[in-house]
Amino acid sequence: MTRASEIIEYMESLQDGEQRIHLMRFFKTGPGEYGEGDEFLGIKVPQTREVVKHVAQGFALKEIPELLMSQWHEVRLCGFLILVDQFERLATKRLEHDGQAIKKRDEIVTLYLQYAEQADNWDLVDLSVYKILGHWLLLPTYLGGDEANIYTDYKRQVLDELAASNCLWKQRMSMVCTWYPSHHNDPSWCLRYAEIHLHHPHDLMHKAVGWMLREMGKNHADLHHDFLHQYAYKMPRTMLRYAIEKMTDEERKYWMNLKPTTITSEDD
Fold this sequence. Notes:
Elements: H1 4-12, H2 17-26, H3 45-55, H4 64-68, H5 73-89, H6 99-114, H7 122-126, H8 129-136, H9 153-164, H10 168-176, H11 179-182, H12 188-196, H13 203-219, H14 221-231, H15 237-243, H16 249-256
Helix pairs in contact: 3-5, 5-6, 9-10, 10-13, 12-13, 13-14, 13-15
């Protein structure tokens, strides 16, 4: 299968009506729900990954938009996972600073951002964004400048625009992509966007922020605790519960009951 139309035709042949109903309920596709109107074929993720495994290498980027614009959730997921596969092949240690690899990675990032709104449910975001945008944050890029550079204001600009978007899924991207740098000794991205989204109104963002703080805390417990000391008392309860989920009962009780008056300054 070398064409998007062939992939779509094949995936449509795998339709499962019973599984379709289950997935539409699970991903909240009813009226007024966050996934309202999303359409499913009823294909499980391992089946989609199997398709990706056989087509991703060498699959033309020009074919990807047809997958990402599909009405079918699983076909869009297939498109995003092909981008993940291709990006990862271009981001090995050997190719990190290779000029051609940088250009191709930048093409994938540009395409990903162009079709970001097509990642219109949490799984589409969570299975792709940290492996593409998150990894890109730590890699050289030509985007935003003429020379390959790891530390660019352009990267922050990209994430700031996602965070400021009116699209829930772009906002979630700005948070979940921080998983990758947090696990590679750069917690600054998580701290920045956790603070930006601290008062976000949607439960899915509360979960994302808490989850990323918890992940960041695995390697940076001191920064995790500092953030909680500053914000725990005013964090949405779901966000806080996710952020402290792996702590002991005693620790969770402490953070859940933290009040502004219990926070002391260094001068006290």
